[in-house]
Write a structure and sequence with these properties.
This protein is mainly β. It has one helix at about 60, and strands at about 1-5, 10-15, 20-30, 40-45, 55, 75-80, 85, 90, 95-100, 110-120, 130-135, 180-185, 185-190. The strands form three sheets. Strands 1, 3, 6, 7, 8 and 10 form a six-stranded antiparallel beta sheet that branches.
Length: about 190
């Protein structure tokens, strides 16, 4: 699918009203989403939900670091050909929609190309759903841990992409501290 995303507009990359699962999403060119602005978002909705399960700046979803493509892994990243990719399974019971949303106030339109690979196998009762959210705290509050996820219910955290920068270039003192995962009220992963 080739599409033109106008400033302040949106474009639907994929929509279905049948059960299934997304096996992969490719979105490019990577240069269209590069830069510090984070003003083009990808939103994914499962089963008629009004709130998106995925709501992220495009670059951050695919592992950009400070506005530039930086990740190349089995599950997500940016390929040599400039296409971003994600291969996490994303099952749904009844429907799915993927859209790009521009929060730009002006400037030129963005030409994008997308490929969505699907299978007609709906979400089973024992499967979870795919969620990806973007959060920012700038600046962080000194002395208070930054919480990147607080949730209830069953599930798996399969990844966190954290970008951090000190007030002075090259200064990494802010890395002094611990990362911790508390599961069911108990410290499960001490950093």
């Amino acid at each position: 699918l080739k599409a033109t995303l106008a400033p302040g507009g949106s474009v639907t990359l994929f929509r279905t009203s049948s059960p299934g699962r997304i096996l992969g999403l490719k979105l490019g060119p990577a240069s269209a989403f590069a830069g510090a602005d984070r003003d083009i978002l990808v939103r994914m909705y499962w089963d008629g939900a009004t709130e998106p399960a995925v709501d992220c700046p495009v670059g951050d979803l695919f592992g950009y670091s400070f506005g530039d493509p930086a990740v190349r892994s089995l599950l997500l990243g940016t390929a040599d050909d400039g296409a971003n990719y994600i291969f996490f399974p994303m099952p749904f019971e009844r429907s799915a929609r993927i859209e790009l949303v521009s929060e730009r106030a002006g400037g030129p339109s963005v030409e994008v190309e997308a490929e969505v690979v699907t299978a007609p196998i709906g979400k089973t009762p024992d499967e979870g759903r795919f969620y990806a959210l973007w959060r920012r705290e700038n600046p962080c509050v000194k002395g208070r841990p930054y919480t990147y996820l607080r949730t209830t219910g069953r599930g798996h955290v399969v990844g966190v992409i954290l970008q951090a920068q000190g007030l002075e270039s090259g200064s990494t003192g802010f890395f002094e501290g611990d990362d911790r995962a508390v599961i069911d009220g108990e410290l499960a992963v001490p950093g």
